[in-house]
Write a structure and sequence with these properties.
The chain is mostly beta strands and 197 residues long. The protein has one domain. It contains three helices and nine strands, in the order E-E-H-E-H-H-E-E-E-E-E-E. A four-stranded antiparallel sheet has the order 3-4-7-6. Strands 2-8-5 form a three-stranded antiparallel sheet, with no helix packed on it. Strand 6 and strand 7 form a beta hairpin. It is elongated, with a radius of gyration of 23 Å. The relative contact order is 0.28. About 3% of the residues have low confidence.
Length: 197
Amino acid sequence: MKSPTTRQTATIKEISGTLEIFIPDQNAKSTVKVKNFLDKTGVAISNSVLKSSDIEVLIQKPEDMNQDEQCEVKRQVTQQQENFMLARSLTVFFAEFKCSIFSSMLASIPQDKSIIILIKDVDSKLKGIEFESESGEVILQQASSSMGTFTMENGGAEIRVYRFEEKLPPKTRLNLYLFTAESVVTVPFKVVDVPLP
């Protein structure tokens, strides 16, 4: 397993390039702050920045999964698939999801300490989601997971689940961080004579 020849080089002469660092604070249109977002469940968040970026965000509480009594018990699976393809909004999509065979995916989510977020992000510009208390402290998640992307008529809808150690305070703020050209800082770097191990 030894190298067949003796290595003559002791250092790397030069490593150079540029680092691209995403800093949302660099641009006002890179951060969308939704105050008291727990009061805005069930309806897509209305915001001009999200709309111009072709992003839709819908907040749902796990307990909302069991409130719809209008589902047809014997609806055919093929009809469900057609409905997913025809859904044009996240609100319609979630209504169909609750009545579908996929709804069991969310059945085990702790209701009082979890939040479901549906995201439609055609160009993948949404780079981060953060929860913040009324005093400005970041509320850490205990866990987060993605249920995957489901097909809609004009794009895909991703379902994310966030779990917390405690129930979120009523006035929790939701921060959404979006990629824009102005939010990226380019920093050149160069190191020379890097010693090899």
